[in-house]
Every structure is written in C-alpha cells, then in structure tokens.
Design a protein that fits this description.
By secondary structure, the protein is an alpha+beta fold. The chain has nine helices and six strands; from the N terminus they run E-E-E-H-E-E-H-H-E-H-H-H-H-H-H. It has three domains: about 100 residues, Imidazole glycerol phosphate dehydratase, domain 1 (Ribosomal Protein S5, domain 2, 2-Layer Sandwich); about 30 residues, no CATH class; about 140 residues, no CATH class. Helix 4 packs antiparallel against helix 9 and helix 8 runs antiparallel to helix 9.
C-alpha cells in the first residue's frame, strides 16, 4: 500500500529527519539510505520498521542537518586527487573534449566525502529512533485512510459476487431439463426410441446430473464471500495475505461453476463473477 511519513526531531545542534515512502508489494522490502555514521544501527532500524510498517516496498531515508554546517564533513583529498588524475589521464588517451568537469562526478564516489562524526551518541541515536517512530506513525495513518476507502470497494465486490450467485437459481431447473432433452436426442440418434431402456436411461441421467450438480460450489462460494467480508472488517492487522488465500478459493469455486454450467445464462453470470474477482485481486496488491 502506498504511503508517506516524515519525522523531524531536534537533538542539541542536530536536526534529524526521517522519511518513509511505501509502494505496493507482496512482501516487505526495505531500502535504507543512511549517513555512514548510522550504518551500525541499520539492522535495528530495519527491524523497527519491519515490526510496525508491515508489507510493501519501503524507502527509508535519514538526513542529519547540523548547525555547524560543513564542519561536520571533510573531503578525502588524496582519494579525490587519485580519481581526478586517473580520469584526466584516461580522457587524454580517449581524446575526450577538453574542459570536461570531473569534480561533481568524483564527489559522488563513496568515501570521497567523509563524515567527521563517526561516533553516534545515545542522545543522537534516540533522536533517530524518535524521528523514525514519528515517520512510521504518519505512514500508517496515511495507509489507514487509504485502506478505509479500499475496504468499502472490496466489501462491495464480495457482495456483488454473492448477489450474482443468487441469480443462477432461476436457470437451474431449466438447465437440468435442457441436459435431459439433449441426452435423449443423442441416444435416439443412435438407438431407436422403442429400444431404449427408460429405467436405465433415467439412472444414467441421474448419475450424469450428479456430476454437474453445483450446490456444493454455491455453498462454499457463499461461505468464502462471507468470510472474506468478516476478515476485512476485523480489527486484525496485516490481513492482505489471508484475503489473498480466500480470493484464490473463491476463484476455484467460480471456475468449477463455469465448467459445470453447460448453460449460456449461467456462463454469463460466471463471467461477471470472474470480473468482480479480478478487481478484488487487483486491490489486494494494495492491502498490507
């Protein structure tokens, strides 16, 4: 589920800014961009986000603004000179047009610009945690607001499938009679009607109709739709995967209904059910 959260905390002469951006994803994938001084804490910060932010592709950024400005950073001059000389020499060999500016490119190379504050105090780390928690709370609030409108749509889709299921009933009796008539015609094309054993024929029809009976599928699909709505409205967190499993079971029953139908009217209703289910599955990618 998409979302955004930002936390800002002051700590002595530092301002810590934590930002969280999330996109849809079946699993939790956290990408961190942290100052080098915070690399040791990355595992703990990831765990904190994993426990509270749940599924999604999450981008986590920490920036630190200091009142001392550039005093907190230094340029690794020897490394900068080495990169510059190597690039300058290479540009001469390759006849690259003179005047090419390598400075900005070199400054973006790791370790060329170093942070002086290698040690992170407890107070500073606490500011990072506080800012991160604020960002997580804002992210979850953003997601909850989006999820409320999404739940209304998902409940409506599930209820639509239940309503379509009821529409099958008027066609069932007609469907059975059509199957009987078709089987009678097929048999009479091969065997004269006076030679047909009607008792045996009725037994075969009953056996065949039992194979095409859809009552079990209707009962199971009704229960799946009901359970889907119950899970949606429950207070349980992180139900996306569970809803996905229920949607799979709904799809299995709908497909079986379609394969047993042998009636164009029922087939049309089944197609409408599949359309509603596909819209449910698309939405479930956004549910944590």
């Amino acid at each position: 589920m998409t979302g955004y959260g930002k936390g800002v905390v002051q700590s002595k002469n530092l301002t810590v800014v934590a930002e969280l951006k999330s996109l849809n994803g079946k699993t939790t994938d956290i990408r961190c961009r942290l100052p080098s001084a915070y690399k040791e804490q990355e595992i703990h910060l990831r765990k904190l986000i994993l426990e509270k932010a749940y599924r999604g592709k999450i981008e986590y950024n920490i920036t630190v603004e200091s009142e001392n400005g550039s005093e907190d950073y230094s340029i690794n001059k020897s490394l900068f000179k080495k990169y510059y000389n190597d690039l300058h020499e290479l540009s001469n060999e390759l006849s690259i047009a003179p005047g090419t500016d390598f400075v900005q490119s070199i400054l973006r190379i790791p370790n060329v610009v170093d942070a002086k504050f290698a040690e992170v105090s407890e107070e500073e780390y606490k500011a990072v945690l506080d800012a991160t928690n604020i960002a997580i709370e804002e992210l979850n609030d953003f997601r909850a607001e989006e999820g409320a409108s999404m739940m209304v749509d998902l409940v409506e889709r599930s209820e639509n499938i239940s309503s379509l299921l009821i529409k099958i009933e008027p066609f069932e009796a007609e469907r059975v009679q059509k199957i009987k008539d078709k089987m009678r015609r097929n048999v009479e094309d091969v065997i004269p009607s006076q030679q047909i054993d009607n008792n045996r024929f009725e037994q075969e029809i009953i056996y065949y109709l039992e194979k095409l009976d859809v009552n079990e599928e209707k009962v199971r699909l009704t229960q799946h739709c009901k359970y889907f709505t119950e899970v949606l409205k429950s207070e349980t967190v992180a139900v996306g995967k569970k809803l996905g499993f229920i949607a799979q079971e709904m799809g299995r029953e709908i497909n079986t209904l379609g394969s047993k139908a042998q009636d164009k009217n029922i087939q049309q209703i089944v197609v409408s059910m599949k359309d509603e289910l596909e819209k449910i599955k698309e939405q479930l990618f956004n549910v944590v």
